[in-house]
Amino acid sequence: MDCLFCKIVEGTIPSKKVYENEDVMAFHDIEPAAPVHVLIIPKKHIATINDVAEEDAILVGRIYAAAREIARELGIAEDGYRLINNCNADGGQVVYHLHVHLLGGQKLGPLLA
Ligand code: 5GP
Ligand code: ZN
């Protein structure tokens, strides 16, 4: 499949991995928008949040559990952080493999600034 993040999961495109378990992986964003900017993805290809099925509920929960672990490991859990999921054109989605942005390491501005 011609999907950038599937290739990162396969290892054919390199990434700076920060977390991995059986069904979730996370790596640093190539163009960080904050001191900490990690992308958390399911290993399984799901294009957008619109394509999440009922049977993916546990998987989506694991993405958020991974976010919590990564924030703790990177030392930003207490100060705080932001999780973002962009969906389709109006949401600003560029890569069509589901991902949650984990942003932190500084006080973030207003959401839509
Ligand atoms: P979206 O706008 O789809 O929510 O976010 C896609 C994100 O993927 C962007 O923040 C962009 O910088 C990041 N990105 C695009 N290509 C690559 C890549 O090859 N490697 C990594 N690590 N991040 C990428
Ligand atoms: Zn994919």
The CATH homology group name: HIT-like
- Beta content: 15-25%
Describe the global form: globular
Low-confidence stretches: none
What name is given to the CATH topology?
A: HIT family, subunit A
Question: What is the averaged pLDDT score?
Answer: 97
Distance between the termini: 35 Å
Rounded to the nearest angstrom, the radius of gyration is 14 Å
InterPro entries: Histidine_triad_CS, Histidine_triad_HIT, HIT-like, HIT-like_sf
Domain HIT: 4-113
Pfam families: HIT
Protein name: Histidine triad nucleotide-binding protein
Key terms for this structure?
single chain, 113 residues, alpha+beta, HIT family, subunit A, 5-stranded antiparallel beta sheet, 5 strands, 25% helix, binds guanosine-5'-monophosphate, binds zinc ion, catalytic activity, Histidine triad nucleotide-binding protein, Histidine_triad_HIT
